[in-house]
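In this supplementary section we document a worked example of the pipeline. Step one takes a protein sequence of length 179 as its only input; no multiple sequence alignment statistics are reported here. Step two produces a three-dimensional model, which step three serialises into structure tokens for compact storage. The input and output of this example are shown verbatim.
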Amino acid sequence: LSNLEVYFSDCEKLTQVRWPEEEKDTNDAGTTLSLVIFTNCFNLNQEAFIQQSASKYLILPGVEVPPYFTHRSTASSLTIPLHRSTLSQQSFLDFKACVVVSEETVSHLLFFIDIQVHCRFRDQHGNYFEPDNPRHFSLHQKYNHLIIFDCHFPLNQDCNQVDIEFRLSSIRLKLKGCG
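The serialised model returned by step three reads:
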């Protein structure tokens, strides 16, 4: 299987999820979880699952960015210092991002959510470098959930700071926080 999507909904008794560790055949790439959704599964141990999840997109119920994310904001952007020692051998900045999306007026409908992620890097002289292609993520989802996804941007080795901005295309939805 490749690009497997998994959906759980209204699982009140679900507290833990563990994906079985698979031994991969040398000729087999294994299963890739492209999307894992836990709609209204409020008793799930989210932090443990976020740490072990290898999915491209993960959706969990919630109204604030979990403490797992060391950089958090109640706005739509973050500024993060980059440390040369940890990035010296990397040509890309890879990170797990989280946004909290809520609805302006409650209607209990599924919404098409289009998220754009923009990164802007700053070097020690104050010059900015912005990759040409922002990342887009589109999903159909209910409001008041965390949307967690992986980001991958080319990295300029001279940079010591990154500004990350998240934008929503829908005027009916509000970005309540990011991490």
